[in-house]
Amino acid sequence: MESNWDKYGFSCTMGPKLRELVQIQLVDELNSLLGMSIKFDFDWSKSCIEGHNGMFLDGSLENYSGIILIDKQASIKADGWMDFIQEGDFFLAYWDQITVCHNNKELFSKDFGISSIAFDLVPEELRWHLK
Questions:
Q1: Beta 76-87 vs 40-43: how paired, if at all?
Q2: To the nearest 10°, the Cα dihedral for 30, 48, 52, 63?
Q3: How confident is the model at residue 69, as a pLDDT?
Q4: In terms of C-beta density within 10 A (0-12 exposed, 13-18 middle, 19 or more buried), how is residue 43 classed?
Q5: Cα–Cα distance between 91 and 126 in angstroms, integer?
Q6: What is the pLDDT averaged over residues 17-27?
Q7: Which residue, of 4, 37, 60, 69, is most buried by count of CB atoms within 10 Å of its CB?
């Protein structure tokens, strides 16, 4: 796998399929939390390793902090820390913590822990370790 440190920081070990899945899941959750439908660009360049790791699809990942999202108009910016659940074929990336600003004013903040939106996507038999 080609290293692209400047662009992806510590998340450079994720392959294109895994990165696409993670980004789709994180944007879907964030849009649900905000009650909006916003297209975001990801900036992984300052991503930092924060805990457990795993292998899925075409790469490896960890729960990263320092993930930046910016909307296409550059008026909404988010900074967060992701986590993930991986059990067999089930994989879910979610925001462990995130702060969203609109024109540099805080719009939304979520403290550490899985949101009810992400929790509802986890199969019943895997929820025991989330409580």
A1: unpaired
A2: 10
A3: 95
A4: middle
A5: 11
A6: 97
A7: 69
Q: What is the model's pLDDT at position 90?
A: 95
What CA–CA distance (Å, rounded) separates 69 from 23? 10
Give Cα 111 to chain centroid, integer Å: 14
**CB 94 within 8 Å of CB 118:** yes
Answer whether 14's CB lies under 8 Å from 55's CB. Answer: no
Q: What is the pLDDT of residues 54-110, one digit of tens each?
A: 999 999 999 999 999 999 888 889 999 999 999 989 999 999 999 999 998 999 999
* 82, burial (CB in 10 Å: exposed 0-12, middle 13-18, buried 19+): buried
Helix (H) or strand (E) holding 24: helix 16-34
Q: Is the pLDDT of residue 131 over 70?
A: no
Euclidean distance between CA atoms 51 and 101, whole angstroms = 26
Angle at alpha carbon of residue 123, lines to 118 and 116, rounded to 5°:
25
